[in-house]
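Q: What structure does this chain adopt?
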Amino acid sequence: MTIKPPKPILAGVIAATAIFALSATSSAQNNGISIHPITIDGAFTNTPEWSDVTPAHFFSAPGTTATPVSAGDPSANTALYAAIGRRTPTDAPSLHLLYDFVPRTNPFVASGEIFAAITFPIHLPERFHPQGTPVGSDIEQNVSVIFQGGLSDVAGLGAVGVGGFFDIFVDFLDGRPLVRAEEVGLFGAADFGPSPLSTTDHLIVELGVGLRIPQNFGVEGPLNPGGAGINPATGLYDPDPAFWGAAAGGGGLAQDTGGGTNNLQSASAALFTINPNGSTTVTPVPEPTSAALLLGSLGLIAARRRR
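A:
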């Protein structure tokens, strides 16, 4: 049984792109399968990791969605790298993302402070289906991956460096308790360091998402070995076009303790498509629709954390 309701987020994005035509300064980026191993460590390296991936650039400001800008635009303060790759040469391909967020330079986060959130759709592993779901169902829904300061202050410092002490949770955005990301099969890391956007240490977040490639998807190749696809019944993320929104920020402020999102701002908003040849197309989405979608999910996160 397949339970796959209409994607209101995707519908909204398609409407937005129809109304607000993308200009040349916000053109789509299309990246093939990376030939270099990608390490999920929260650090930007392009020798050779990420060297064959072209990012989409945005201008991020408090209170608005991230505005797509061209590479080299002096206002660009956020970059989104996205491509299919492998953590080791023998791993199955998976979707990898790096969020390069220059506005956040304070490397300390309060215990429980949310400093990044990434919202996108996945197929829920069966053990995380809502109560009463028929066995064998396929449920796809939006989730938010939340990066926050560790909830237990073992050193008694009140604030901790994010590189050594943070938690990653998944919020199903349906009122259920948060679960640790690795239990769902999502893996991430965050740290502070330099990047092509800025030599000043700033927030860098990486995320790895397992693929759900159907059988006979495109020509036989890395995404369709022997016509079998990749985890067609158990994977998390399928090739259908989908909206991804990300927010980051915070600042280690005391009022954020407990998971408040009042200091987060939109870092990127884009439509993702995985193509039969294994390439990933990232199309930046203009405001205002993407802002409403992303901020709506952040409001749910904030409410969940308050409860």
